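[job 0417] fold request received: TonB-dependent receptor
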Amino acid sequence: MLAIATATAGAYGQEQAEDESEQVERAPAQTEVIEVRGYRGSLFNSSAAKRESQGFVDEVFADDIGKMPSQNLAESLSRIPGVKINRDVTGEGQQISVRGLGPSFTKIALNGNSIAIASDGSLGSGNRNREVDLDIFPTELFSSLAVSKTATASQLEGGVSGFVNMRTARPFDAGEDGFKYSLEGAYGDLREEINPRYSFMYKKTGEEFGVLIGVAGANTKSRVDGYEAVSLFTDGCTAQWDNPEHSASSCVDGSQGLNHFFWSPEATADYAAAHPGVNVGDAVDPVATSGLDAETLDTALLPYLGRPMFTYGDRDRVSGLVSFQYRPGDNLDMALDIMYADASKDFVRTEAMWWGRRNYLHQGAAIIPEDVTVDSNGYVQSGTFYNSHIWVGSHDYQEDLSFLSVMPNVEWQATSLLNVKASASFTKSEFDRDEPYALYMSPSGTMTFENGEVPSFNFSEDPASPDIGWTWQQEYDQNGDGEIAADEKFGDMFRIQRNHRETETKGLHLDFEYGEAPDYNGFKFGIAWDENSSNMRSFGGTAEFTENNVIGSDAYNNFADYLGPSLVNDLGNSISGYSGYTGIAQIDWARLKEATDYNNFDAIEQAGDQFGQTVGDITEEVLGLYLEANAETEIADRNLRMNMGVRWVSTDQNVATTESETNASYDKLLPSFSVVYDVAEDVKLRASASRSLTRANPSDMFPNASWGGSGIESVNAGNPYLSPFEATNFDIGGEWYFSDLGYVGLTYFEKEVTGFTRSDSVTVPFTELPTYGMDITSIGADREQALLECGGPSQCTTVVNTRNNIDGSTTLSGFEAVWVMPLDFIVEGMGFNASATTIKQDASDEEAIITGISEWSYNATAFYENEAFQTRLTLYHQDGAASYYSQGKEVFSFDRTQVDLSASYQLPVSYDMTVTFDAYNLTNEPVGNWHEYSGIAFDAFYPGTTYTLGLRGAF
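[job 0417] inference complete; emitting structure tokens
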């Protein structure tokens, strides 16, 4: 129950606690701490901090952080207006975005310093830009979280949308010395196992020196059921033989559409068995059997490799904090904060794909449609499909993540007017993911398809059984000799997928404050040096591994022996309306790795990762100088506070891949201004204007240059010279504080953002190609001849296909509202707090449209507490939003409303012991996306509900 209020918040809280009728006096310059108890106490400190803040700032304090049913800091921050949470497929919050812009546009700081986390994002993706995953940070080790939505000169730059400072606990924070603990068991209703969670904190303070040690960890046995499509929805065409030897197949003449899969013109075994009088090989008209007209069948859309799936495994996480604080007198405060986190995942992801990609007729894989229904938008709603195959993909994930931060700092009141702050920081994070991927094929059978909340697939054989005739590849006896030769096996068997990422940050900051109360009347100035680096590596070698380790192995010759029953037998039980197959035969990964000597294979470094993205290194050295002035006066006998400042920042970037390296530099000037006016005693009006920046996405900057053909006409390259994203920000709003706890607030904001990029082509002199990372010293005989024919290096030009900044901008505008309301006049200890945000955008160029913006998001918490009992019910809602575009079609997220419950009871014993109960995601809200239209699921993941029972105490 530690909380740190800002100096002004502390003074306000003390005065209100003593006598609500007294006028609040200004806090002294040094930080004061007050102890808060319960959710009301944390709301009190948040209200007080907001009341005395300059600009538009919201804070969450320790009791709120530690006792809400929040799995990590991302969850805690989501209760702040304007903050949106990005969730992993487990439903757990992972990243945050502020006022609509994505996670890369929010600057995340730890104790005021830059950090970077090397983790790789959610399942099936990769963190490639400036995102910071927050799911390794447990709430128990932090005292406050502050979100600044308007920039000030003294803040580190880098957040177009906002600046988030996470403050770790320190010895001289409020609260008594001693030992605090929590022990919890979390029960997930999908996995049906109890997962231990724990936290311990010890602090000891003396007259001058204090130490705090904290540890928090969890072992989570998780399961997620879900559904996915790959990349797009697609259509098929009626296949025809190209020659009598059945060596190839293609679409009939005149077929339209994407044609990614094939309808069979010949009766298959299961079709013949279901239709008396029909023999295998008889001619079949798939248009007639489908019940559709030829044009509708030719363009009817089905999910591309649509697949029920599940993840099943463990995650271990432990985080530690050590903080030393030394105060030899009132004018000196020294601290050293060391934080370490380690997380590992060991889980299987298994997906049962309906094979509808390149299912060639000559490989015996084309399908026959029957009784197909299609909606008005062209999407298949139901049907029966003969000669279908299930193509299973099984991933075996082994992930390890580490994070270390060391942050010493000192604050010295040198004179009565001069305060000096000096800090240093170092963080390092490493992430390794080993993700071998094995694929195997069912025999042919009959598939029925029924669309719903997610599609339901049913198969004539049981996919959960290992004994239905699975093979490592699609096998088809083309020549009819009764034997399967090597050239009669088709498709992938095994993929090598390994990734390594490493981040490092270093910083030295020196800040000066001049004045008796520099936050009100005085000056601040300082210098900041930061160096941030991110190194990404990807390793493969699928072809080499297949040739040398798979083919000829016992697993290759006896693949069915390496399969076992499904890990789950109720797949989809948590999905409303699902009626498809309920399990997937599971590969024995330990035996497969042993049979192929997987652990001794030396993977080969690749230029790109399994997501098709270039990998490399980026290092940025940043020097910042700032000057900030604060002034206070009276207008019409009412207080007016002003803050104005400017920050100059210089950035040197080095961007490199395995083949090339480039450098770029730029300077920016970032002014800021804010004002707060006391319209009435309890009414504050605020306004601010500022410029802010976020540096360009590293994934767009890698100089992955390569020739576009055999000549010198074109080059494909990243652009290391991209300008940063910049924003001009305006805010106006205010609050009415009608009690020490309660207030209502409304803010209008507008943000014009530039710096968006598009795929582009620019013509440059041949001699300038090295600036794009292209080696022109050794280009080969053909290109040397082409160079000669166009007049030599000084005369020739080349088209560079890259990404460039566009001239257009996007304006985001919206409102944020907040209401904190005690209801003591109804029932003592009752109340609620709620906030809502609405955002709209206006893009001058369609290339600058921002994805991921929810028009509405809101949350509300109803609470009741007395001396022994506390309970809270919290609702979070986010409207669906365009996530990205696939083949020109919008993929947009589900509307999502999550409900959590938290309760605690102080036991009537001599020791400080409290029983806690939390219920997380009570309604099993999924995480997912629609494809173009609501009701056409692109992906959906159902994490279930988690119930936690625990014991907290102190002695």
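[job 0417] notes: Residues 1-36 have pLDDT under 50 and may be disordered. The radius of gyration is 31 Å.
[job 0417] exit 0
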